TrEMBL record:
Keyword RNA-binding applies: no
Swiss-Prot/TrEMBL keywords: NADP, Oxidoreductase
Cross-referenced InterPro entries: AKR, Aldo/ket_reductase_CS, NAD(P)_OxRdtase_dom_sf, NADP_OxRdtase_dom
Domain NADP-dependent oxidoreductase, chain residue ranges per copy: 21-274
Entry keyword Oxidoreductase: yes
Family in the record: Belongs to the aldo/keto reductase family.
Organism: Bifidobacterium pullorum subsp. saeculare
Active site: 58 (proton donor)
Residues that coordinate or bind substrate: 120
One annotated GO molecular function: oxidoreductase activity, acting on the CH-OH group of donors, NAD or NADP as acceptor
Gene3D superfamilies documented for this protein: NADP-dependent oxidoreductase domain (3.20.20.100)
Protein name stated in the entry: Aldo/keto reductase
SUPFAM superfamilies the record matches: NAD(P)-linked oxidoreductase
PROSITE patterns registered for this protein in UniProt: ALDOKETO_REDUCTASE_1, ALDOKETO_REDUCTASE_2, ALDOKETO_REDUCTASE_3
Length: 289
C-alpha cells in the first residue's frame, strides 16, 4: 500500500468545535522559498493533498498562491474542496495591523477566503493576542476566514485569551512528535474542545531513528517507512498533522496512512518514546517577529 497514489477521500476530516471539517493530513511549507514552493504545492495537490499549512512568516505565500492558481484551486468546487491555513506575523499582531496584514496575505494567496487564520506565537512578553483576536472575529464575521486558531499556546495563554475574548480557538498547532509529546497541553486542549495539530510531526526528521530503532522495527513489521509509522501514530491519536516534504514520493508516502494500523503494543511503544527535548522554539521566549 505504500507509495501509491492516495485517494484524497481516504483522508478523513476532523470536525472542529465550530463544525468546520479540517483534513487530518496537510502539507507544511516551512523552509521552502517563494520560487521553490510553487512546484512543491502543485505536486502535493496532484498527489491528493487537500490541506496546505502556510504562514506569512514563511515568506512564500505568493508562491503558494501561484500554485493554487495554476492548479485551478482558487475558485469554485476545487476551492471548496481545499483547506488553506495561514498565520499572522507576530510583528503584525494588534487590531488594525492584523486586518491590514490579512488583506495582503489573502492577495498573495489569490483567494477570497482562507479556511483557518492563526496567531503564530503567543509572545507573552509582548501580549497582544486579545486585540488581535477581535480582528480575527471580524474577519470570520465577514466570511473571509472560516475558523480561528492559534499556534504554540500553552494552557496559560489559552486561559488568558479566553478571559479576554470569551472564546477558545478551534485549533492549537503545537510542536508534537514521539520524543516531545506535550501531554499537559494536549490534555488541556482536549478538555476544552480545541483540536490539536502537530507541527514538526517527525521532529524535522530526527524522530525517524527514535528509540534506538523502535520506529524502524515497527515500520518494517508493516512494510511501511519510518515516517509512515510515526504519522500513523499521530493519526490514531486523533491529531491533525502537517508533515513537510519537497519530494513528491515522500509527499505521497506521508499521505498514505490509512491502509494499516499499529497494534496496541506498537502504539504504546511509541508513546514510551516521550522525552524532555524539543526540536523547535520555546513559546515563552520565542518570536518570529
Ligand atoms: N506553527 C509553528 O510555529 C510551526 C513551527 C514549525 C513547523 N510548522 C509547520 O509544520 C510543518 C512541518 O514541520 P517541519 O517541517 O518542521 O518538520 P517535519 O514535517 O517533522 O519534518 C520535515 C523534514 O522531514 C523530511 N521528510 C519528510 N517526509 C519524509 C519521509 N517520508 N521520509 C523521510 N524524511 C522525510 C523532510 O525532508 P524533505 O523536504 O527533503 O523531504 C524535512 O527535512 C512545517 O512545514 C510548517 O508548516 C509550524
Amino acid at each position: 500500500m505504500t507509495n501509491g497514489i492516495t485517494n484524497p477521500a481516504s483522508v478523513p476530516d476532523i470536525t472542529l468545535a465550530d463544525g468546520c471539517g479540517i483534513p487530518q493530513v496537510g502539507l507544511g511549507v516551512l523552509r521552502i522559498d517563494d520560487e521553490g514552493v510553487q512546484p512543491v504545492v502543485e505536486e502535493a495537490l496532484a498527489a491528493g493533498y487537500r490541506h496546505i499549512d502556510g504562514a506569512a512568516g514563511y515568506n512564500n505565500e505568493g508562491g503558494v498562491g501561484r500554485a493554487l492558481a495554476a492548479a485551478g484551486y482558487t475558485a469554485g468546487e476545487a476551492r471548496a474542496s481545499l483547506w488553506v491555513t495561514t498565520k499572522l506575523r507576530d510583528s503584525e499582531q494588534g487590531y488594525d495591523s492584523a486586518l491590514k496584514a490579512f488583506d495582503r496575505q489573502l492577495g498573495l494567496l489569490r483567494l477570497d477566503y482562507v479556511d483557518m487564520y492563526m496567531i503564530h506565537w503567543p509572545t507573552p512578553f509582548d501580549w497582544r493576542s486579545g486585540e488581535t483576536w477581535k480582528a480575527f472575529v471580524r474577519l470570520r464575521g465577514e466570511g473571509r476566514v472560516k475558523t480561528l486558531g492559534v499556534c504554540n499556546f500553552l494552557p496559560e495563554h489559552l486561559e488568558r485569551l479566553h478571559a479576554e475574548t470569551g472564546e477558545w480557538p478551534t485549533v492549537n498547532q503545537i510542536e508534537l512528535h514521539p520524543t516531545w509529546q506535550q501531554r499537559e497541553v494536549v490534555a488541556f486542549c482536549k478538555a476544552h474542545g480545541i483540536a490539536v495539530e502537530a507541527y514538526s510531526p517527525m521532529a524535522r526528521g530526527s524522530d525517524l531513528n527514535a528509540g534506538g530503532g523502535t520506529i524502524g522495527r515497527i515500520a518494517a513489521a508493516h512494510g511501511v517507512s519510518p515516517a509512515q509509522a510515526i504519522l500513523r501514530w499521530h493519526i490514531e491519536n486523533g491529531t491533525v498533522i502537517i508533515p513537510k516534504s519537497v519530494h513528491a514520493d515522500r509527499q505521497r508516502e506521508n499521505l498514505d496512512l490509512f491502509g494499516f494500523a499499529l497494534t496496541p503494543e506498537e502504539h504504546a511503544a511509541i508513546d514510551a518514546l516521550d522525552g524532555p527535548t524539543r526540536a523547535g522554539h520555546d513559546p515563552l521566549t520565542f518570536t518570529y517577529a
